Amino acid sequence: MDSSPECSLYVHIPFCASKCDYCDFFSLAKGSSVAPGYVRALVNEARWYASACSVERWKTIYIGGGTPSLLEPESIESLIQGLVEASGSRLSPGEITLEVNPQSLTEGKLAAAKNSGVTRLSMGIQSLCDNALKSVHRNCSSKKALEALELVNSKWNGSLNLDVMAGLPGQSRDEYLNSVEKILSWNADHISLYTLTIEDGTPLARRIEHGEFWDEDEADAQWMLGRDLVEKAGFKQYEVSNFAKKGFESRHNLAYWRQENYIGIGAGATGTVYSFDGEPHALRWTDTTDISRYTDFWLSTDTASERDMTRDERDLPRDVENLDAETLEFEFLMMALRTLEGVSEDEYRRRYTRAGWNGNLSERLGENGLWKKYTDKGMTTPVKDGRYALNKKGILFLNSFLRELI
Predict the structure, then answer these.
(1) Which of the two ends of the chain, N or C, has the fewest CB atoms closer than 10 A to its terminal CB?
(2) Which residues share a beta bridge with 193?
(3) Is the domain 6-257 a CATH 3.20.20.70 member?
(4) What gap in Å lies between CA 75 and CA 35, rounded to an integer?
(5) How many other β-carbons are positioned within 10 Å of the β-carbon of residue 88?
């Protein structure tokens, strides 16, 4: 594998007490605990990739799921300590995020997060409307969510992101806006504001296929009204669904949007390592979703052994995809244009001049064609210092722009 002295690390905890009807992430309803063996397997995998990719330091660590807050306090501490030490660096990552569910967050788990160096919590509130939460079988009540917010407010001094979702079944516009206002009254410095998406194969999708009513236009209207409230509260939108107080943008997510290397570990996790020396290419892998196979493999790895550190990559329990320059170039534009900072002409030229393009970003975006069309519609920001970006109106039509860009 190509070396990556600094890269981000995503860690997947694929267990939930129960699964929400809208969720299409890989997770299993496993009750209220996570087996310690899975945590040890994660650390072993992190060590392997740190060695294979010559990682000297994790820029960021993001522990997501699933429900990472199902981990017991001692598992939280041992996991994060093991992950940080895996790179062999004495320097802590610039950001360590732990996703938590209000239902499973306790004072002990919060203390463990703080003691182990977590700098940022991301809490999935989604709504404070009990009818909406019940409608998607979310394992949390508004009462429990408010109790968790009170706990964090009194015991946590790090960064805090709160997730909010528009368009949930059983949630009126007034109830949604009331939820947003209440959530904004807490001391978050980052808000992730989503619109419910109906994903194929989920229980919610099947309900709608069988005739349950869901109004997509109302969901979009709720989101835009919620955005107005969030911005009035002092948050600045910097990506399609993300808003932050100044200096509190998610560094980990920015790594994705800027096409930087990231290692993904854990059952179902995806990672990508890029190379721009010569023809651009990348290796992308997704770990097996077979929990037993994943855990057995990585627990059998003696991470102190040189033999295991250099084992054949073909043995790893994962699916691998080799990405070509054309795929990477389009992904670069797609991800960069999700953000309000947009895409840099210099960065585009550095990466893709040798990939069959002439490195001319204005020509690629259609400065006299497609980009001009969106500019005439008031959907772009003025080009400055070679940076092209859609504005707050424009990113609402990002999918349409990308379809035309292809």
Answers:
(1) C
(2) 164
(3) yes
(4) 9
(5) 12
Pairing of strands 28-29, 343-344: unpaired
The reported pTM is 0.93
State the amino acid at position 63 in one-letter form: I
- Over residues 310-339, the mean pLDDT reads 90
Q: What is the DSSP letter of 313?
A: G
Sort strands 159-166 and 190-195 into parallel, antiparallel or unpaired.
Answer: parallel
Residue 355 has pLDDT above 60, yes or no: no
Contact indicator for 374, 401 with CB cutoff of 8 Å: yes
Q: Which residues pair with 84 in a beta bridge?
A: none
Other CB atoms within a 10 A radius of the CB of residue 382 amount to 9
CA distance 207 to 137: 13
For 300, counting Cβ atoms within 10 Å of its Cβ (0-12 exposed, 13-18 middle, 19+ buried), the class is exposed
Cis peptide before 66 (omega within 30 of 0): yes
Q: What is the DSSP string of 142-174?
A: HHHHHHHHHHHHHH--SEEEEEEEE--TT--HH
Alpha carbon distance 278, 45 (integer Å): 29
**What pLDDT does residue 88 have?**
83
Which residue is listed with tokens 């992430």? 25
Q: How far apart are CA 385 and CA 259, in angstroms?
A: 20
For the record, the structure tokens of 262 come out as 């990231």
The two three-digit tokens of residue 319, written as one number: 């699916």
For the chain, what are the domain ranges?
6-257, 325-405
